[in-house]
Design brief:
This protein has no helices and twelve strands. By secondary structure, it is mainly β. The strands form four sheets. A five-stranded parallel sheet has the order 2-4-6-7-9, with no helix packed on it. A three-stranded parallel sheet has the order 1-3-5, with no helix packed on it. It is globular, with a radius of gyration of 15 Å.
């Protein structure tokens, strides 16, 4: 499915993607303000940049168990998204991928994760639980900034670097 094929379809509420597609292309559903449900087949290995950018009513997404990559700002502004399953096998979460997903309640990153982008979960102010993958050696800048309900975070033993403001403005940390 080509880039921006459904861009700005303001009345689209539900989509069931066909088995066999490998990626959700760039900006495919960007600015689909009414989109609430998406069903992603297991054939999908990549959710590209800005795929669901500002789909503010998106609350339910069934993700592919074979997903390897979530691109830059893929879910930015999906304010109603309260749950997202990060499958085993996921390797990359791009910069600002879940920026301002204000309803996201928990962030449990799989052991397979190799790259965690800058600001990936900035502004997920409803997240109460964060579990960081044991393979992550660096926590990039702003990654969990503004996750206000998180009380504790256990850093992986392999953590070598925590960048600028990685956990800034988390007012509930004890």
């Amino acid at each position: 499915i080509d880039t921006r094929a459904f861009f700005g379809c303001k009345s689209l509420k539900k989509i069931i993607l066909p088995q066999g597609i490998k990626e959700i292309s760039k900006s495919l559903f960007e600015n689909c303000f009414s989109l609430e449900q998406v069903f992603v087949p297991d054939s999908v290995v990549e959710i590209d940049d800005r795929a669901f950018f500002d789909c503010c009513k998106l609350s339910e997404i069934k993700t592919s168990s074979n997903l390897k990559l979530i691109g830059w700002k893929a879910f930015k502004g999906c304010e109603s998204l309260d749950n997202f399953y990060f499958p085993d096998g996921l390797e990359t979460i791009g910069d600002n991928a879940f920026l301002c997903c204000r309803s996201l309640e928990k962030i449990v990153l799989p052991k397979s994760l190799e790259y965690l982008g800058r600001g990936a979960f900035t502004g997920c102010d409803n997240a109460e639980k964060i579990e960081i993958s044991e393979n992550i050696k660096s926590i990039p800048a702003h990654t969990f900034s503004g996750c206000n309900k998180v009380k504790t975070i256990r850093l992986p033993e392999k953590t070598e670097k925590i960048e600028w403001r990685a956990f800034a403005f988390n007012n509930s940390l004890e």
